[in-house]
Amino acid sequence: MTTSSSATTTLSKSSSSKQRVSYFYQPDVGHFYYGPSHPMKPHRIKMAHHLILTYGLYRQMECYRSHPATPDEMSAFHSEDYIQFLGKVTPDNLRGYGNQMQKFNVGEYTDCPVFDGLYEFTQLYTGASLDGAVKLNRGDCDIAINWSGGLHHAKKSEASGFCYINDIVLAILELLKVHARVLYIDIDVHHGDGVEEAFYCTDRVMTFSLHKYGDFFPGTGHIKDTGAKEGTGFSVNAPLTSGMTDEAYKRIFKPVMDKIMEVFQPGAIVLQCGADSLTGDRLGCFNLSLKGHAECVRYTKSFNVPTLVLGGGGYTIRNVARCWAYETSVCLDVDLPNEIPYNDYFEYYAPDFQLHLTPEQRENMNTEASLESVRVDLLTQLMSLKGAPSVQMAEVPPDFEIIKEDAVAEKERRSTKEDRSGEGMNDGGAEDDTRSDRGKTKDGRGEKREHEAELAG
Ligand SMILES: [Zn+2]
What we know:
Blueprint: H1 4-10, E1 21-25, H2 43-54, E2 62-65, H3 71-74, H4 80-88, H5 98-103, H6 118-137, E3 143-146, H7 167-175, E4 182-186, H8 193-198, E5 205-212, E6 235-240, H9 246-264, E7 268-272, H10 290-301, E8 307-310, H11 317-332, H12 368-383, E9 403-404, H13 407-412
Parallel strand pairs: 1-2, 1-3, 3-8, 4-5, 4-7, 5-6, 7-8
Antiparallel strand pairs: 2-9
Helix pairs in contact: 2-11, 6-7, 9-10, 9-12, 10-11
The protein binds zinc ion.
The site of zinc ion (ZN) has 7 residues, from loops.
């Protein structure tokens, strides 16, 4: 591919370049409901969308109504029997699927319930990520955003951690049709295990995940889990602990990103912006402000590489909406006033009705020494790579059409299904985590796991 000197030019950083942004949204995606005590609330995507509209951000980007992903598209990663099962199981017929529910980790004894419209929900969030990848592949935009995507825990034949279909893996596979190398960055508080596992044995995808590690779901993401076979060294894990501050997060993120961009030179980036790493999250334990979280978006954007920006976790939903609206403005290089504009969900932002969050007064359990050790270990890992792999690209396979959406008409849309979930007033409290004990160990240090790659080469 490129020599390192020419690559330095193409990957040069800039702080104020205007990039063309495309935004993908399907108005029904916010109407699905996991269940009364389940912390995952798709409604947060609709809340973020309304903030984006009322801040006027839709005027500065191309807004698209995404297509629902087809079983055929999903089968690029997932097994056929798993996709068929998701397409058939409903809350009314699930008694007939006992064995399969166990096999695919779905149902009431798991954190992945069968709810009304489950399959349609997966089609919507997945289609939007695929549309974003196609738009980037065509060179029609520089940044594509899908806040409904980023479900990083789903496996080839198994649901996991509120995730059923892995839209990220599918979008990366789409990007690999055009780009020799794709970088995946995951700033969710949980390890990006499903994506790492899918590309564990290939050097065409580098995964970089920063996460809480030790006695925490999903239990993977040890610093020594660096990939296997061709992919050795291409899985990058920053295991962290509770109380991460903006300053501490930046001290890992920026130098590691600099080194990754230098040695890996990706043609495209997928950035998973899970908002459960924010301060005050219902399930998370980091202490990041919106600005600290969004600094990762800003910094990634400064490399001027085509980027797919996705959502992910985030369980204090008023803060998830704040975060993703603010990060949309960062993608657009627009300053937002701190006063939340009046919108359909205005009361959620009480009592201050401000955009930005103040971190809590609590100790950062990550010590200077532990942070320095993570930083040095990851830079050492990256420096040992023998440069970026080159790939002979075949003819680009065909993709599909994308339907453009009129965002203003969208704003006027009123749904009859609205508010059937009634969430938002009770977010807070770790007892709300319905996830299994996976990743919890007696000594509280987590486990280092060997994992099989689902996709090689
Ligand atoms: Zn998460």
